Amino acid sequence: MKIQTSLIVVSVALLLSACASKTERQFISGCKIGGIDGSTCSCIYDKLEKKYGEDGLKENIYTLQQTESFQRDMVNISYQCMKE
User: Fold this and answer.
1) Residues 6-54 pLDDT 10s
2) What is the pTM (predicted TM-score) of this model?
3) Do the Cβ atoms of 80 and 47 come closer than 8 Å?
4) Longest dimension (CA), the chain
5) CB burial string 39-63: b at 16+ within 10 A, e below
6) 38, 59, 68, 77: which has the fewest Cβ within 10 Å?
């Protein structure tokens, strides 16, 4: 029974991680490497995606010269999510 339960948990985790976009997975992975917990990283990504949309966020994340307003939003949203 324990093996069945473990397999179910692993399968659900894999399915849930497959639902996130590549950009989201990479953002959250990098965020965690930076020392921030996963729930805060997810909060930051979700709020940035809500503001910029998936394509706009991807463009801002993968550019070497992020706009000042995007950087400001990233800092402000990070503070908001850390307080939550």
Assistant:
1) 334 333 344 344 567 888 999 999 999 999 999 999 999 999 999 999 9
2) 0.73
3) yes
4) 54
5) ebbbbbbebbbeebeeeebbebbee
6) 68
Phi and psi (nearest 5°) for 65?
-120, 85
SS3 20: coil
Q: How far apart are CA 82 and CA 3, in angstroms?
A: 37
Output 19-23 pairs: Cβ under 8 A, ≥24 positions apart. 21/54, 23/54, 23/57, 23/58, 23/61, 23/62
Distance CA 21, CA 16 (A): 11
